[in-house]
Input
Amino acid sequence: MILDLFAGPGGWSQALTVLGVRDVGLEWDAWACKTRAAAGQLTIRTDVAAYPLWPFRGRVTGLIASPPCQAWSMAGKRLGLVDQPLVHQAVADLAQGRDTRDKLLAACHDERSLLAAEPMRYLHALHQHGQPEWIAMEEVPDVLPLWRQYAAILRNWGYSVWTGTLNAADYGVPQTRRRAILLASRTRTAAPPPPTHAKLAEPESLFGPGRARWISMAEALGWGATDRPVPTVCAGGGPGGGAEPFPSGSRKALSDARERGTWKPHRAGEGTPSTWRWALRHNSHANATVRALDEPAGTLFFGHRANECVWQAEPLTPASPGAVPAPAPIRITAAEAGILQTFPADYPWQGNKGQVFSQVGNAVPPRLAAHLLAPHLGKTLAPNDFTLAA
Output
């Protein structure tokens, strides 16, 4: 079997579905488990840190893990930062078959910090049976030093290992999401998959195949296509899922966006249009990432302020007296966020808006995951294996 630790709502699993393979996911969050069930994915609802290892010994060909990263998180009060040495110690101990988790956990500032060491508990148990054949792990970029520790241990066990940071946009994800990756194999040389996209399109040459331009949000969402109107965007509501009214004129304004996210309202009393463009603002902070619709999104993250991510109109030319004001911002919907993570438009998310936003933000983009996993499965991705728009 392929074992997926901290499986979430199914980012890795959706990638495997595209590749014609299934996995077994271990996940604790109830709503993520319901999403997985609705998507037809095999799931054991459990605490990864407490689940016994004996059912998997001798049966796992591939192990996937995207553990929580509180000790490396840049969000919140960052109390877990001081737990990093304890996580490294737990990994070293578990690699030797010594379970010191209870002792180390008592010293942690965040009880979730040691979850990043859990994959080593499984790997040590499976290693006794010459398994798994391959390993894929993913987390935020700051976790890279921990992946390097894992890599040193795995090389001593006979694996070829690659660690590094990849940009999801380089693999057709409409989002410049950077992630620390570990890839390991007993049967092949571990290496990152060749990128398929670039910030600027690259033509085919004597030195290799060309690369397409990064996929924009407009392209992924199907906005601005010549054969259909731009979809109407719905209001996001609050974290508890309650509906909110549209700001006056916003529904029509965004549905009037056309090629490459540009909307051209007319100035009052004039025939010459002033130009606005739609952009995605990731939160309300002064230094928030703002990306135009004809670009990929920045890294999508949804915490306790899930609906601060908004579509907003920005002027491309200086405003003049009497100009039509920009429409009010419109909150991104969970369905749109899921598409920007490369989940299918009809993916069966379960829970209220806040619960779904949380699942989307924590998931691995399936399109990136498919590129990471395909070589280990002897698969080749076709250009149309991921259709992003509805």
About this structure: Confidence is low (pLDDT under 50) at residues 225-253, 255-274. The domain at 2-211+363-377 is CATH 3.40.50.150 (Rossmann fold). The two ends are 32 Å apart (CA to CA).
